[in-house]
Each structure stands twice: as C-alpha cells, then as structure tokens.
Design brief:
The protein has helices at about 1-40, 45-65, 70-80, 110-120, 140-145, 155-160; strands at about 100-105, 105-110, 130-135, 150-155. The chain is mainly α and about 160 residues long. The chain has a two-stranded antiparallel sheet with strand order 1-2. The relative contact order is 0.10.
C-alpha cells in the first residue's frame, strides 16, 4: 500500500513541477520581452546617430589629404553605439554634436569625427585583438569592439602606476 501511494505521488509531483516550470518560463519570457521593449524605447536617439554618421561621411568626403571615405564597418559601429550613454547626463543633449565633451577628471570624450577617423586609420580586421590604453569614457573602445575579435582595456590610472 505504501508503495502504491508513493507511485501515485510521483506523477502528481511531476505534474506540479511541470506546472511550476511552465509558469517560470512564461514569467521569464514576459521579463525578457519587457527588457527588450525597454531597450528599444530607451533608444530614441537612433535618428541622431544616423545624422551624426551622415555628417561624418560628408566631412570625410570633403576633407582631402588622402581621406575620402570612412570604412563602412566603422560607420556601422558608430550607428550602433549610443554615444549619449558615454557622456554625463547633463551633457546628453549634446552627445551627437561633432565636438569633444568633458567627462570628468580633466578628460573629454573625443568628437565623433575624430573617433571615426582614428578607428578607420587603424584598419582593424575582425580577426584583430586590440589593446586600448587610456580608455576615458569607453566610447572609442565600444566602437572598436564592434570591429575587432577582442579588445583589452587599460585605464590611464593603472597605466600611470604600472612599473616601467
């Protein structure tokens, strides 16, 4: 008799476990959906990034000196990286203007054209590994990370203290 009760209890326990698993999966799907919707809703600055990239393309084509265009992979990275996330909140409204902005500790985030030009001149290939020293805001590193196999960061503080 005891064996029959245990036998009947197992399928009931499995049904409860399956029910709990389905509920957890549904909750996880809802949470992930909400997070994705939130990320999309927060990125209401995409048109500003596209305008910034168009301005960079125009500057490069009119610059001369051997630079007539920026690599399309660099431009795609600039379109993808939300520059406003790398500047202080109070300067966020100026994030996509082509000018350096202060980020604290006497440092600035480079103007977008400078980031585009430096990244383009590096000619980073998808198989490359990049070491960036003096990361600053991290914007240049974020742009580079979309072009290279891997990127390693070293802050200017830790570089200054490193033994020579």
């Amino acid at each position: 008799m005891h064996g029959q009760r245990a036998h009947r209890a197992r399928p009931a326990a499995l049904r409860v476990a399956a029910c709990v698993a389905r509920a957890l999966a549904a909750a996880l799907i809802l949470i992930l959906g909400a997070l994705a919707a939130s990320a999309i809703a927060k990125d209401d600055r995409m048109s500003e990034r596209h305008a910034m990239v168009e301005a960079i393309e125009h500057m490069a084509s009119s610059m001369g000196g051997g630079v007539d265009h920026i690599d399309p992979r660099v431009l795609a990275a600039l379109r993808s990286v939300p520059r406003h996330e790398f500047v202080p909140r109070e300067l966020s409204h100026m994030a996509y203007s082509d000018r350096p902005l202060p980020i604290g500790l006497g440092q600035t985030i480079s103007q977008p054209f400078t980031v585009a030009l430096m990244t383009d001149l590096l000619q980073v290939k998808p198989s490359d590994r990049v070491l960036e020293i003096g990361t600053g805001s991290g914007y240049q590193a974020a742009v580079l990370s979309l072009s290279a196999r891997s990127i390693r960061l070293r802050s200017w503080r830790s570089s200054a203290r490193a033994p020579r």
